[in-house]
Amino acid sequence: MATTKEASVAELSDQFRNSNAALLTEYRGLTVAQLKQLRSTISEHATYAVVKNTLTKIAANQAGIDTFDDQLAGPSAIAFVHGDTVAVAKALRDFAKANPLLVVKSGYFDGAPLSAEEVTKLADLESREVLLGRAAGAFMGLLYRAAYTVNAPLSKAVRTVDALREKQETAA
Known about the structure:
The protein has helices spanning about 1-15, 30-40, 55-60, 85-100, 115-125, 130-170, and strands at about 20-25, 45-50, 75-80, 105-110, 110-115. Helix 1 (about 1-15) packs across helix 3 (about 55-60) and helix 4 crosses helix 5 (about 115-125). The protein folds into 2 domains: about 1-125, CATH 3.30.70.1730; about 125-170. The chain is elongated. The protein is an alpha+beta fold and about 170 residues long. A 5-stranded antiparallel sheet has the order 2-3-1-4-5.
């Protein structure tokens, strides 16, 4: 039996190490169907695993994470994020609004612990694609302005030369 526990701890520890983030939730009272729905909602960016508290604490500590030590109580599940952390935080927030029995307790992201409030703030951020789109739009705007600034004196000079030529032709 100890080998099964050791294997579970090793697997959880690997998941902590190989994830962009880990978001701890309590799912007390949710049905199997609701958990399945939640898993499918976040499956593109994360794995949602129901975990044993004692083994999870050991695994997290082995991975250098002590964020969850005081919060591993009750029925716990962790979203191990391997994709867009903001998208997973949004999905958890939205699911919790529709299913108040899901409680986001805390998280661990980019080497730092996150409180439940910080996970909510993370969920309020724009998605990576939107932020990249905005950055690309701003960059394109800068390029167009730079091109106009470079071309404006040249086109002004061309118009001046054309006007002088017309003036000479009409004078002659």
